[in-house]
């Protein structure tokens, strides 16, 4: 969510959205923007799309599209305003992936295309993209060393282009990792010396995820190692820089990905030192609220501690205590939700179906699902249970009108999730089916 907001704001503020033209226009007179003339043959009624790839989410952001109306046609993507250098991609609308184009501010080029296969596109008058397209079209069977040599040749040829940054990142990803622990620590600490961490072009690099994933996995995934990863990358980096938001967002997502590794201390460190109080106003109000709530839950109910106990009742006024439920099951998954919560309406059927699949996959594991209505208004409770496929859950409410459990669990937001083991220890506080399966299958 954060990265999407960052990239959309940047696109709008810098005028990155191109304006498709139906016929060839005059060459840009200034050094700002870009102009891509595509000479299309025998491609009538085909639709071309120009897009960016977010390096963190891998999501495609379509910046412009145009239709080819004749069998022989020159169509133009043009942007007259200043842009941040970025790797764009060009594809047909019915394709999943496209061909990369290195667009620095002021780029002008002619591309030629006479095939439904976008990979066969060629470039005539822009040396950087002629070489970049040929690099992408190279024989897939060449060795890693040969690929590195090709990248190094282009790095030397185009020292200031976005292509240089892209290929430098590719080299880092391909670089051999040292063997000993001492060497790995040194390598990790100097990992980002090859680039300017505040370079705003990092926002538009499609290989950011691979770069960062290699970084965080250089050493064993532990809370202490991860704290060092965070500090090594973020300490001293201007929090107003867009890359600060990109890196912070990656850490938040990656910590969730590895959450079965007991990384709560690392999340708390990230929040307290780099997110709390939102000093540079780079996080949206919704994201900041979400991160703050997660931190508060970490403080209230740390992973590995005993789950708070409270009394519950069913619609039939049968009384339960949470401490009497979890000892009878291998795992107990508790969800606090509100029928009026839009996110709950969307998420609860997914949660329910996912646990059905887990129960079928692990029939010997006794998993109890508990849905707790977290709302004083119970008028739609029964209907919600039926519509959202929660009939086979233990559906309960609190008899306490003040709902003290909300304070004990920090369960003020909906939905809130807690996975509890047979001993009553909280072992997970999110709905992450991959992490849940890992814990159930231990």
SS strand fraction: 15-25%
Which geometry do the CA atoms define? elongated
Largest sheet: 7 strands, mixed
Average pLDDT reading: 90
Number of helices: 15
Gap between N and C termini, in Å?
32 Å
Strand segment count? 16
Uncertain parts: 1-6, 8-29
Radius of gyration: 26 Å
Strand order, main sheet: write it out: 11-10-14-13-12-15-16
Quaternary: single chain
Sheet/helix structural class: alpha+beta
| Approximate helicity band | 25-40%
Structure description:
This protein has 442 residues and is an alpha+beta fold. It is built from 15 helices and 16 strands. It is 38% helix and 20% strand. A seven-stranded mixed sheet has the order 11-10-14-13-12-15-16. A five-stranded mixed sheet has the order 1-5-2-8-9. A hairpin with a 6-residue loop joins strand 6 and strand 7.
